[in-house]
Amino acid sequence: MPKRRRKYKKRTYWCFPAVALLDQFEQGTWATIIAERLGTNRATIQRWREGTTLLSPYQADQFAIRLGKHPSQIWTDWFDLPEFGGNPPKEQDNDSE
What one-character-per-residue DSSP string does 36-61 give? Predict the structure, then answer.
């Protein structure tokens, strides 16, 4: 019997830092309280506190809605994505002539 290959969803972009969500809470708020408010678990909040987790636009939107905000209020570059009508960032020239 041939091996079955898993179909992985291609992740084209993960560009919104999850730590920005944590900035919406007071310093020292327990991870359990934040997790309840965002509809996730405490371990996820602990991982986000490391500062390396990035969220997809869909995830970022869902968490922002749970806080009663628009994602652009949390991530100022929200509308910079091409999908939302923005232009991708241009590369800067390092030539100093």
Answer: HHHTS-HHHHHHHTTT--EE-HHHHH
Q: Is the pLDDT of residue 13 over 70?
A: no
Whole-Å CA distances, 51 to 13, 31, 90: 17, 14, 25
**∠ at Cα 31 (28, 36), nearest 5°?**
125
Q: pTM for the complete prediction? A: 0.70
Cα gap 53→29, rounded to integer Å: 19
Query: Is 61 in contact with 18 (CB distance < 8 Å)?
Result: no
pLDDT of res. 9: 52
Q: Are residues 35 and 45 in contact, defined by beta-carbon separation less than 8 angstroms? A: yes
Domain ranges of the chain: 16-84
Residue 53, φ and ψ in degrees, nearest 5:
-80, 130
Q: What is the CATH number of domain 16-84?
A: 1.10.260
